[in-house]
Amino acid sequence: MCGRAAARGDVNSVNPNELTLAEARDALKANRISARELTQAHLDAIGKARILNAFIRETPDRALAMADAADEKIAAGEARPLEGIPLGIKDLFCTDGVITTAGSKILETFEPHYESAVSANLWRDGAVMLGKLNLDEFAMGSSNETSAYGNVVSPWRRAGSDAPLVPGGSSGGSAAAVAARLCLGATATDTGGSIRQPAAFTGTVGIKPTYGRCSRWGTVAFASSLDQAGPIARTVRDCAILLGSMAGADARDTTCADLPVPDFEAAVSRGVKGLTIGIPKEYRVDGMPAEIQKLWDEGAAWLKAAGATIRDISLPHTSYALPAYYIVAPAEASSNLARYDGVRYGLRVPGKDIAGMYENTRAAGFGREVKRRIMIGTYVLSAGYYDAYYVRAQKIRTLIKRDFEAAYASGIDAILTPATPSAAFGIGEKASADPVEMYLNDVFTVTVNMAGLPGIAVPAGLDGQGLPLGLQLIGRPFDEETLFAVAQVIEDSAGRTKLPEPWWA
Amino acid sequence: MNAPVDPKKLIKGGLHDWEVVVGMEVHAQVSSRAKLFSGASTEFGAEPNDHVSLVDAAMPGMLPVINAECVAQAVRTGLGLKAQINLRSVFDRKNYFYPDLPQGYQISQYKDPIVGEGEVLVDMADGTAITVGIERLHLEQDAGKSLHDQDPLRSFVDLNRSGVALMEIVSRPDLRSSEEAKAYVTKLRTILRYLGTCDGDMEKGSLRADVNVSVRRPGEPLGTRCEIKNVNSIRFIGQAIETEARRQIAILEDGGTIDQETRLFDPSKGETRSMRSKEEAHDYRYFPDPDLLPLEFDQAYVDALAVGLPELPDAKKARFVTDYGLSPYDAGVLVAERASADYYEAVAKGRDGKAAANWVINELFGRLNKEGLSIEASPVSASQLGAIVDLIGEGVISGKIAKDLFEIVWTEGGDPRALVESRGLKQVTDTGAIEAAIDKIIAANPDKVAQAKEKPTLLGWFVGQTMKATGGKANPAAVNALLKDKLGIA
Question: Which of A53, A480, A490, B53 could form a disulfide with B38 if both were Cys (CB 3.0 to 4.6 A apart)?
Fold first, then answer.
């Protein structure tokens, strides 16, 4: 009889975990569900999905306390943009009073007493933290197999197979949790494709905004000139809503742009009429599966049908991006990770002298992939190699940036490419192979980081084995709005991907 | 580099004469309230780790933000060194592991420093001057401090200094003796203090020098150099150069060669010893810090800072010579400290500049040195000293009485003019009173009077007796004239 109870009756037929973020927001606002109910439903889902290993740490007490606070705000008519929305936080974002590991043993005990700028923005807007999400160690990986806390299992399986698949990486926990409906959205980071590749592997949407759109303050650094935070969610609109809260100027990060945050959600429904979409021929790589090519062609056809002009373009330095990336990123990482020395926080393994302590601590604290990249980075910065590697890689970076600038100057509004060269692969399938094979996962995504541009991965269909495939859109600097508009057309044309039934629960 | 060699500067070896060649990297702590890339305080003397921000401790995810005041201080210093100011400079990371270096790298400037080439004019004690080339000045972070003497088993780390801004000022190898090196650092410190960009306090470690020393036979190419790290007093800089030059000469005259290495100077043992060889030198893997954008500003910013600069010692010295008629030496002494120069100018204003200089340099500085006081702590103010100079000029007191008066003002304070009245220090110009005193002396010393007629130099004895009888207040000119007259000395 009370309107609220009646309204809840309406929603009880719907699993709160099946709501999109935007739907949940509207339901909360309309009192059709409480923040506590919504949060509890997600905590329950997380509890049943531990086999996926998406979370490194669950924070149910904090989640419920935040949800109750949100319910009070809603009751008082003071709901903020994300009031009561339960989210997962990649364990690369420092969270005040909650251990933050970066997926590494070396930070197993590290409890920050500060909150990352991005997560603080989400709490400012009323969001609820469910816990800390698994990731490749220090965000170095494309399969979530390098985490010191075990690999994440994708909620997706090949048709007729029980073989566990990777969710992609490094934001594998974020993508898996979103795809498995364990949270309404998640924070993620992208240094070479770590948002877009796992989003593509799990049938979710992920945007890496323009470098400088989100503050890096309080996010554990991998490669400072490439790292950028962004959201993973189940729809384009949900990503737009989350990015609107995550982004913003921050004087504590001098590489963070001093620009107002546009109304991203409003851009979602702009459509593509009058836009020119570029199709770069260099992304048609050798050995690309026919399914990927077909998907790409289909994406172009959808956009054309919706009123966009499709034009072939050339980004001539594309093939140099991956090797250059694997010089720049490890170089910065080798320096950024020097602070994990056992002196002030985190793991310390004693040694006979200070050098012994450093060696023992870092030998025990870092995993193989992190060590490999520290060694590569140290090598390319060494006297006598610096010019041959680091300086040349930076020159390539400039050339890649110019390729994009030329394309945009010629009237291109966004560029359409596949997000990944294949669908998700099996756990262990590539772990023992040549590491370069793993690095090839980033071939379509690294260019975007090298040029500092925004890029979004949006699900566009399934492959023959029933696994999701994604398309990538690359935009002009600080023009995420166009990406959201174009991505929404793809989402509408492809139809929202039907996410896997919870076999894990 | 091929200027004629001054034989006086050469060091005598067992076999040959040698020329020492010195270049210096001076680390000057920037005067600023906050650190170079964090808001933490730079205040000296706090409890260990009291002034440490999350950035200074290199917590995960922390980022540096440049302190604009430190940039302004570096530009001011560059202008004071008549140097090229680079409108675009880059911060680089210098990577190495050490417990007092939390980030595992020092943020410094490597290829593109904020300040380029400049020069410093250095006056030597013998009246000559040399010009020392400045190669560059860059901004960088200081490290923390490792404490090895607090616990029998463990070392502690104090990060209060971690991240404090330093200016590294690199000279060309233009110095040819320990005296020149000491004079260069002294002059550099003077300039920094005038500018207010570094307090120059070597005891607190605000100014330290890495000294590059090599020796060669005059006219030969530069020898292999050794770098003596972290010398923290001007006296030690001189000693370290002498010691190191003699060590190198001994090796070379024995037929040996110098290994390029980093050495430490031990003042207690009077020796330098090897710290690390060239082979052990770190590979710092410099690369541009991706957390920081290039540092860029426009010429208008530089011009505005230039307008705000104080008069610098060279200009002030020249002005003192011209305006006050001082000798270059006296002018140099007065401008060595800005506070001394200001004090002097306050005394000299509207008075005889030379007399004022004599009083400031001889009486005041002498007394301050004796008491170990700085000019700021002088018990005699510039206006008090000015009054004393006035009283002499007006003939109210003699120079001798003036010294007594200075002493009274120093210990008791007070208005010099009033003191002259109240203490009866006024010079006696009344010839009647002087004459009476002289008559008494002549009457009491007939033998001396007789001798004086033969030996006129005895006049001095009579002058002394007269001054004594009048308590030093008799006008010396009047005494002389009267005595000559009465003793019949022409």
Answer: B53
